[in-house]
C-alpha cells in the first residue's frame, strides 16, 4: 500500500513507519524538521496547519493513518489546535484527495471527556471522524510502552530506584508499541473493519492493577521495588511543581493528574479487536524487560 502517516516523528509514528516499511509498503510522512532519507519513505515538509503540505501528503494514497496528537498543553486552546483542528484538517485533505480509508489513533481518555482537557479534545476529534463520511476506524490505545518512549521512562527510573509512585488504586491496560503498529497497518488494509471503535491491549483479561504493573516494572529492571499508591492531592502538588520547574517540558501536569487518577483505564471487551484481524504477540513482562534493556543501552536508565 501507499500510506499517508501523520505523527511520524513521534514515538508511535516512528515504530509505525518501521513496521510499514518492513512490510513492503511505501510511506509519505509529515515532518516539521529535516529527516534522514530512507528507501520507501517520502518526508513531506509541513504541519497539520498547512493545507498545501497535507494535500501533498495524501496525494494518491490508499489510506491515512492519523497518529499525530498533543499529549500536553497549557490550556484547552492548545489541545483543540493539536487534536481537534488538526484532525479536521487531515479529514478535509483526505476527503479532497479521494482517500477514503482513515485510521484514527485516539486514546482511552476519550471515554471520559469530563475528566481532562486532553480527553475532551480526543472525544471531539472522534466525533469529527465519525461524522466525516470516510471509511473510518478509531483506535483507542491504552498505555503504550516500548523502546524510544520518554513518557514511561520515569516509571522505569523509579523502579530502578526501588520505589514506584503510582496514582491511587486502580487498573489499567497496556500495549507494546510494535503490537499497536501492526494493528494500525492491518486496519489500513482494504476490507478491514470500518466505522468501528477498537480498544486493543496486551491480551491480559481485566488489565493490570497498579501494584501488579509496579511489580512487573520491578522485574523488568531487576531491582526489588515497592509500589506506592500516591494520594491525589500529592499528585496535584507535584504537578504544579513540575510545571513550575520544567514549564513546557513538564510531564506531570494538572490535566494529566485528572485522568491518571481515574480508577478504570482497562479496555472494553465490547470494543475488542477481531482475533482474525489481529492479536498481540508481545507478552508484557518480556516487552517491559526488552524496553528496560533498550533504555540501558541508550544510557537513559
Distance between the amino and carboxyl termini: 38 Å
Continuous helix count: 10
Q: Which percent band covers the strand fraction?
A: 15-25%
Strand order of the largest sheet: 3-2-1-4-5-6-11
Q: How would you characterize the overall build of this protein?
A:
By secondary structure, the protein is an alpha/beta fold. It has a domain at 2-145 and 174-202 and 267-281: Rossmann fold, CATH 3.40.50. It is built from 10 helices and 14 strands. The protein has helices at 11-22, 51-57, 76-97, 117-130, 153-161, 177-188, 210-221, 232-246, 254-260, 284-298, and strands spanning 2-6, 26-31, 41-45, 63-66, 101-105, 135-139, 143-145, 163-166, 171-172, 174-176, 197-198, 208-209, 226-229, 264-265. It has a 7-stranded parallel beta sheet, with helices on both faces. Strands 12-9-14 form a 3-stranded mixed beta sheet. A two-stranded parallel ribbon has the order 7-10. Helix 4 links the parallel strand 5 (101-105) and strand 6 (135-139). The longest helix has 22 residues, at 76-97. It is globular. The mean pLDDT is 93.
